UniProtKB/TrEMBL annotation:
Keywords: Signal. The keyword Signal applies. InterPro entries: DUF3500. It comes from Pedobacter panaciterrae. The keyword Signal applies. This is DUF3500 domain-containing protein. Residues 1-22 form the signal peptide.
């Protein structure tokens, strides 16, 4: 009887979890339709477009607005429309502080800070787009993008099937506005440096890559261009604590998705940890120009690099990308190296 009771409890939790996921997607669809209905005809044509490879891969980290993206600019929306647009992405993304939606909004705020007295940087220079009609049946993609941000969430028959590719960058690394200090990629940075700090000198030597990079290597326009051979230190040789630190570092990117999806993706990556590699170039503190690190698993791919400052040349700024060898764009398109 005790075993039956335990089985019932497990089944109950599973059913509740599935119902919670379904309700979460229904909320995304509901808010999406509210937003779309608030737009005029021309805006509706621009924001809901075909779910094609060309449209899905049209994203970048550059501050070029609609010249290099699809969708509608947030800056072109009325206050009510903008409120409705933010309700969509808030429903679709993670809920933790400085993760998911909160982190994305801080990236937008960084551009608002950069835009003070400078042209080309603005919170209004970001886009939102639906590739395919947001509905329970069928496959479609939600895009939120702009300078230093490219969110791509893919939905299929009422489920979130992919949270990648994701690009997150940041300049400056930290700033203060109205007495509040922001540093939306600090946790990402610190989790990676903690991961490296746990390694012995011998392990660090094994993890060091033969050459460095100017930028993330599988960024915009580089779909499917993963290295043919994994390099660095194989996590299967590490102890339990070190493996946990790698998984915790992954979490900082995966939590861009809603909480249930992030948990599911992370469980998949954790199950593959022994065949996951970590590699770095430059210094393990990730503090200087050219310092670089990546996590490369059977599925997960994460890169982080310290770039020369563009607006503040004496500083570094961050470029990062999260991809999935299998699940990018929901596995809808084929790419060849």
């Amino acid at each position: 009887m005790k075993n039956l009771g335990a089985l019932f409890c497990m089944l109950f939790v599973f059913v509740c979890s599935q119902n919670s996921k379904a309700e979460s997607v229904k909320t995304v669809i509901s808010t999406a339709n509210t937003f779309i209905k608030s737009l005029n005809t021309d805006q509706q044509r621009a924001v809901v477009i075909g779910y094609t490879k060309e449209n899905a891969t049209k994203w970048t980290n550059l501050p070029c607005g609609l010249q290099c993206r699809v969708g509608v600019l947030l800056g072109s929306l009325t206050d009510i429309q903008l409120q409705n647009a933010k309700a969509v992405v808030k429903a679709a993304m993670g809920t933790l502080p400085s993760k998911g939606y909160d982190q994305a909004m801080q990236i937008l705020a960084a551009d608002g800070f950069l835009g003070t007295g400078r042209k080309g940087y603005s919170q209004g220079n970001y886009i939102i787009a639906f590739l395919g009609k947001p509905e329970i049946t069928g496959k479609w993609q939600l895009q939120l993008g702009g300078h230093h941000l490219a969110v791509n969430l893919t939905f299929d028959n009422g489920k979130v099937v992919s949270a990648s590719p994701l690009f997150i960058g940041l300049e400056p690394k930290t700033w203060t506005t109205n007495g509040v200090t922001y540093a939306p990629l600090k946790a990402n940075h610190d989790l990676l440096t903690s991961m490296l700090a746990s390694l012995s000198d011998e392990q660090l030597e094994s993890a060091k890559l033969a050459s460095g990079f100017d930028d993330v290597s599988v960024g915009p326009g580089a779909d499917g261009k993963f290295p043919a051979t994994k390099a660095g230190l194989k996590a299967g040789s590490l102890n339990k604590h070190q493996k946990t630190l790698i998984i915790e570092a992954m979490k900082a990117w995966v939590q861009i998705a809603d909480d249930a999806t992030a948990k599911k993706l992370l469980a998949s990556y954790a199950a593959e940890i022994d065949n996951t590699y970590i590699g770095y170039f430059g210094g393990p503190s990730l503090a200087n120009k050219g310092d670089y690190i990546r996590i490369d698993g059977p599925s997960v791919w994460i890169e982080f690099i310290c770039q020369p400052g563009a607006v503040f040349p004496a500083e570094v700024h961050y470029h990062t990308v999260y991809r999935d060898h299998i699940r990018d764009y929901g596995g809808s398109f084929s790419f060849f190296n």
